[in-house]
Amino acid sequence: MQNSEAMALSAALLAVAGELTQRIHDGVEARGFEGLRPAHGFAFTRLAPGGATVTELAVHLGVTKQAASQLVDEIVRKGYAERRPHPHDARARLVVLTEQGWACTRAAEEAAAEAVRPWVELLGEREVRALRDRLMRIAPSGPIKPNW
Amino acid sequence: MQNSEAMALSAALLAVAGELTQRIHDGVEARGFEGLRPAHGFAFTRLAPGGATVTELAVHLGVTKQAASQLVDEIVRKGYAERRPHPHDARARLVVLTEQGWACTRAAEEAAAEAVRPWVELLGEREVRALRDRLMRIAPSGPIKPNW
DNA sequence: AGCAGGTAGTCAAGCAGCTTGACCATCTAT
DNA sequence: ATAGATGGTCAAGCTGCTTGACTACCTGCT
Q1: Of B12, B36, B126, B128, which sits with the fewest C-beta atoms within 10 Å of its C-beta?
Q2: 3-class secondary-structure state, position B135
Q3: Residue B89 DSSP SS3
Q4: Which CATH number do you get for residue B102?
Q5: Domain hosting residue B122, numbered range
Q6: Does B146 reside within a domain?
Q7: Looking at the predicted structure, is the pLDDT value of residue A147 above 60?
Q8: Which tens digit of pLDDT belongs to each residue from B54-84?
Q9: Could you give the number of structural domains in chain B?
Q10: How many CB atoms lie within 10 A of CB A73?
Q11: How far is the CA of A95 from the C1' of D9 (A)?
């Protein structure tokens, strides 16, 4: 594959990602969850399964644990999560979503579906599923680095 | 398309975009262009065709013109671009890439090709081209908002 | 021609989110 | 039992962005 093709692919991917992020963020706000940034959303996806420690969150977000701790402060203060004692480690605290946190997560899913809808109209559902499958095969499992 | 599917697609897209950004950035650095951030790369793509004014750059990046001006200061100081008088407007200045700026752009293309290579090995060139075509059809023309 | 309002760019101050560094409490391995 | 590693927080500092204010220049209307 030529360099210029690779660059065109990269540019398109980044442009789509940027717009998607914006649309999901706007959709979440429109549903009444304010004062959140996209980084909080990335945190929610890590917290959702069964909670996580600050350090785990820091690894997932690709930031220092101080930054992660500060982010947790914010979402706790706003009522989206709470710190509970960790069941197996007295040093650690398990950060889990509150009911409001779950509601926000569901709102994000709705917003994502809304953001993707124009793609379905343009490409068809079959093509969008194909896109999803290809992306999922090349998606890394490492940290989500939002800082670019 | 279900909400959960849309969310999975979004997550995969953002993860891939994040990793791609990181790889291109690393590749550019490995080729000897240091002290640059991904945002500079987005600026270069706007400057490349025939230069741009600070205000045009600001719109493209989705930031204030003050921030864009500051970014131009940086890449001028580092020798990647220069400010020339605008041919038709004495208020404006046309920011154009220097030879070093072009060299950096070529390095970014090489890095992009390198970053995409594993995808080609995994999916095949035909599939990656299909991915590119789909993404280009849904890519917006608006500002690249790197701040998420 | 001349003036009013809009636009390009810069200077200055402030802020938000991140980093590095230091520290204590607790866990784990020897 | 003790030494080192790990989870978390406090504090200070930096960087890239924002808002606000200003000058120089362009454009359209009278």
Answers
A1: B126
A2: helix
A3: coil
A4: 1.10.10.10
A5: 3-138
A6: no
A7: no
A8: 999 999 999 999 999 999 999 999 999 999 9
A9: 1
A10: 13
A11: 15
In this predicted model, what pLDDT tens digit does every residue of B76-122 receive, in sequence order?
A: 999 999 999 999 999 999 999 999 999 999 999 999 999 999 999 99
Beta bridge partners of B82: B96
Q: Which amino acid, one-letter code, is at B34?
A: E
Q: List bases in chain C with any atom under 7 Å of a protein Cβ.
A: 6-13, 17-22, 25-28
pLDDT of B1 above 90: no
Answer whether residue B147 is part of any domain.
Answer: no
Inter-CA distances, B86 with B24, B75, B83, B133, Å: 32, 18, 9, 36
Please give the distance of CA A40 from its chain centroid, rounded to a whole number. 7
Phi, psi of A125 (to 5 degrees): -65, -35
Which residue, among A41, A11, A30, has the nearest Cα to B146 in the 3D structure?
Answer: A11
Chain B, window 37-76: residues with a beta carbon less than 8 angstroms from a chain A beta carbon: 37-39, 42, 45
pLDDT value for B29: 93
CB contact under 8 A, B113 and A2: yes
**Per the structure block, which two tokens stand in for A65?**
């644990």
In a domain, B49, yes or no: yes
**Across all residues in chain B, what is the average pLDDT?**
92
DSSP H helix total and E strand total for chain A: 6, 2
State the DSSP code for A147: B
Asked if the structure places residue B12 within a domain, the reply is yes
Confidence tier at B142 by pLDDT (50, 70, 90): low
Q: How far is CA B42 from CA A14, A33, B87, in A?
A: 10, 30, 24
Angle at A20 between CA A19 and CA A21, to 5 degrees: 90
